Amino acid sequence: MEAKTTVISARIPVDIAEMVKKTCLQRNISMSNYLTQVITDPQTPTFSKGGTVNNPGIAVNEDLKAILSGLGGLGIGMVVYKLLNAYLPRDKFTEEEIESYSFLGSMACGIGSAFAINKIIKND
After folding, report:
1. Model confidence pTM above 0.90
2. How far apart are the first and last CA of the chain?
């Protein structure tokens, strides 16, 4: 008769072990049950350094969401500005026109990207 279960082991950092223990205590389940759930079901909620997370991923408050989307929009805007400024043909446009198009293009892309990033970030 074959055994229906087996023991597996792994050496993990102490802080990770503590997170797993906290998660098990908070959910009132054994470590074996929790690890089995994590391995067999990819949708199983995971843990964070502060303890547990009620859903997969990272919850983001409104302030952090605004900061992340603003920085993302700023970064994309800067890239667009640099690209337009470097690659607009100098024989077809004056330096003033290149500067204007670069600025307007970067503003449009930056603002659009900030709104898109803000929409993508989930508030759980």
Report:
1. no
2. 47
